Amino acid sequence: MKGGRSKAEVVKSSRKSDDKVAGKRKPATERASKPAKKGKPEKDPNKPKRPASAFFVFMEEFRKTFKEKHPNNKSVAAVGKAGGDKWKSLSEAEKAPYVAKAGKRKTEYEKNLAAYNKKQKEEPKEEEEEEESDRSKSEVNDEEDDDESGE
What we know:
The chain has helices at 7-24, 28-32, 54-69, 76-89, 92-150.
């Protein structure tokens, strides 16, 4: 038989594939026992956004100046790289105005977040009452359905 496989080669190749599969797979009972992953909770669009750091405050200004100097540049990566290099070369005194602006934004954010959290604590009470009333209605309906099916 030209070009055919011998029995020894077939047995060896089947053993190799069996070893790979058996080594990596877990038994079905082990896979089923893991709890299902829950998705990420939905983000509230009303929640205030976190403030920009001092570097990002700096980048707001740097982007404008960089665009003026390099109007033909379309690469976002080039602007980011140049901004990062410039930020690293700045002294602490040169960074101070950006740090101050970032600090102002942070205090404003904290005030907004505190107001948001206070508002959130008040709202869930109303939602919980609605959920409880819905639950009680469904439980009553379930009991009525059971009575009807039994008759």
